[in-house]
């Protein structure tokens, strides 16, 4: 059974819609008296969002751009794709019902093996000409971070068996996984793909500058992993190292923005008007993300963000719904794997801004105690989440134009 690239992208978007529907169910739980296990639904929501939508979409794009398009290779990839879907559907059916239990853990473990297989498959079958491109080191590093992040889930079993889920190490293992997923695997893969698009359009960095940028970014990815441990109130040097890593990322961003501005006309020629808008939005949300990360390396703000759950959720959603998902929309449209129109994008952005705004509003209200949170906050958040769900449904079911 061969699954076309177009249908693989649509499967990824379907996972995004399912993740959004589970998120919507979590919002319903706060407004209506519904008999569901909130924690179990949350597990299903997060796993399908990260491993369904983002992983499937990114690996499909990596296959299309960087892997040899030979019949033998395509057949292996297709079966690997199908095996991955079995693990994802298994998680979708088990996490919302039983949370972390035998079956859900089994399927999530099998998914880890599927991701290892894809990493091996990619390096074995990558196009020879890609290996010398400026973008390839970023793609290679992103897959290494994908594998590295899996240490977190592997550690959870031992931690739960010996120290229990209330242990500090339990939370640290989860944060380790999330950090190298978001800031390692996803961001470097996206950066590598966008660099490839620019490289194909004749916009390149010098070999020396690209090498230095790549080195600094990887140093910062490792050091900013310490940000995930600041809630434990560690020694001062941990704050200093995490701030140093966050600072390096801001400097790298500054250089990238300078490089883009220097090549502004050439960059604009690469994109349609809508694609260029998405590109600018990605740069804006990424810039805010990196600045917040730097601010969060200071003890006061590190403590603040860890104690106010709304701010933590807002930050994670800012990365996932903002930086990662909007960048994927851009790449999918550039590669003509799926085409968007402005109404779809504006609808999505409205839902994103409203949900983020409400979460940040409540977080600031709790922190400052200068104003109260409206009694209808949960209803407003539910309405904003419904808007986001509808936007994703429009993107999935009413595409402007699909690739063949």
TrEMBL record:
> Which parts pass through the membrane?
12-32, 44-65, 77-95, 101-123, 143-164, 184-201, 213-231, 237-258, 270-292, 312-332, 344-368, 380-398
What keywords are assigned to this protein? Membrane, Transmembrane, Transmembrane helix
Q: Under which name does UniProt file this protein?
A: Cytochrome C and Quinol oxidase polypeptide I
Source organism = Winogradskyella jejuensis
